[in-house]
Specification:
Layout (H helix, E strand, L loop, with lengths): L12 E5 L13 E11 L8 E11 L2 E4 L6 E2 L7 E2 L2 E2 L3 E3 L4
Antiparallel strand pairs: 1-2, 1-8, 2-3, 3-4, 3-5, 6-7
């Protein structure tokens, strides 16, 4: 069965992992940020597109901190962008939200 890839768009709720390839959601290896995509552009002037994420949750070593959207932003590169360690794929869509 072939599945259609899900595209991350402005308004999508996503999870951005800090340390690829780790994608743990619980425990001491869980390090990620959740937020809403506000924009997709070369925000930091690096010559590559980034997701502008309005952060809603930070998880560090499995400890969750809720954040008011608008008080903190992060800018991970768009999935598929070539980086020093290969194509980026650290941001995933949170299904059903």
């Amino acid at each position: 069965m072939t599945t259609k890839p899900t595209l991350i768009q402005i308004g999508s709720k996503v999870r951005s992992f800090d340390f690829p390839p780790y994608r743990d959601l619980t425990g001491v290896s869980a390090h990620y940020i959740e937020g809403v995509v506000e924009d997709i552009k070369d925000t930091m002037n690096y010559g590559l597109d980034q997701y502008s994420l309005c952060v809603t949750k930070i998880v560090e070593a499995g400890v969750e901190t809720l954040v008011t959207c608008g008080s903190r932003f992060v800018y991970p590169v768009v999935n598929g962008t070539q980086t020093m360690v290969g194509p980026s794929d650290t941001v995933e869509l949170i299904e059903g939200e």
